[in-house]
Amino acid sequence: MKKIAIIGGGISGLYIANLLRQSSSYEITIYEKNNSVNLDRGYGIQLSVNSIELLNEIGFHNINLEDKFHPKKIDFYSLKNKKKICDLDISIFNSTKAKYTTLQRFTLINFLKNRLPDNFINYNKKVTKIDYESDNIEVTFENSASIKCDYLVISDGIFSKSKSLMAKREIKPKYFKSIALRATIDRDNLHGIDPSNISLSLGSNLHSVSYPIDNRGQFNFISILRKKLSNSELSDFSLFEKSDFISSILSEISKQVDPGIIKNLRDIRCFPLFVSSEIHQPIKKNTFLIGDAFFAFPPTFAQGASQSIEVAHELYRNLESLTDQFNHKRMERTKMINRKSKFNYFAFHLSNPLLIWIRNTLMKYLVKNNKFINSYLGKIYKN
Fold it and tell me: DSSP readout, 269-318?
């Protein structure tokens, strides 16, 4: 049996472990640096059809209907005049077995974790060293304990230390010059929107998204605010938990977002947005990067979780077929999604009135153009 060490118990690590355990060819262990898997209760994620199809292979379709939601459209609004610009029908990518889905991150993580035997996850295992030997890999942890494996799968997030250890150099993500404010809100406190859809509101250097995360009336709210921060501010991780800083971000957002929404937000968290500065390709053929450790995108396509699942599934297929095309294929697809994500970010944050008018006029036409939608979104939402 080939030994596979998976570093990180996030979505991508848990998902590929679920796939690999179906094969008798592998001995799998997840090494998680924390003392538990981060469930991140309350906050939502979006999963496009490509990832739902893959999750259904391991039984995701059996999730309680109350714990997930299937929005049919994305409604675009203007924060300036509070009017609807247009809507985009995302249900055209649905099939009878897979639909665009929103849910709590907790629901997905719990589903993936509970399908694994308890001994699959080793906690409090912070990696400090990675050595490559002739036939295998030796991974050393903070307490000086070590393991040897045939394959190493790194999935410990955008700030992955394991990736830097593997590359023998420091690999850092870059600040995307934006702050994200994330919260939950009840459906009754959202006014002027269709609660059965995803609502995307566009402002000046700001966009906000609200969407249902279950069938019980709970909604996720997130605002992305363009904001410069100094190096000292970025290095002070406690800054983003301070009430004064969160209040200042809320104050900036409330200049454009309905104050009635702002006052009803709960479980508010604030954090700087980081994205990958490069696509790193491991030199060693028995080491692989998946999830945000592979590449973290700007959050304008809601593709973080979907790509984590898609990348993990592709690696599984490559391991099963013993091919070495994984990194090459992923690089091409990642570059395409990254380009479109950056373009969306630019379009969502316009402040010039003329450019805003041109954007809104084009959007009204393009969302009804099936050829454009299938090209622009279809290449991302479909495998």
Answer: EEEEEEE-SS----SSTTEEE-GGGT----TTS--HHHHHHHHHHHHHHH
Distance between CA 108 and CA 47 in Å, rounded? 10
Average pLDDT, the chain: 92
How far apart are alpha carbons 34 and 124 in whole angstroms? Answer: 5
Q: How far is CA 163 from CA 127, 128, 283, 295, in A?
A: 10, 11, 12, 11
CA neighbor of 265 nearest in space, from 189, 176, 350, 349: 189
- Residue 282 near residue 132 (C-beta atoms within 8 A): no
Tens digits of per-residue pLDDT, 174-197? Answer: 999 999 999 999 999 998 889 999
Scan for tokens 């990180």, then name that residue: 8
- pLDDT tops 70 at residue 219: yes
Helix residue ranges per DSSP H, 45-160: 49-56, 105-114
Instruction: Read off the pLDDT of each residue in 257-285 and give the average, rounded to a whole number.
Output: 91
Query: What is the amino acid identity at position 294?
Result: F
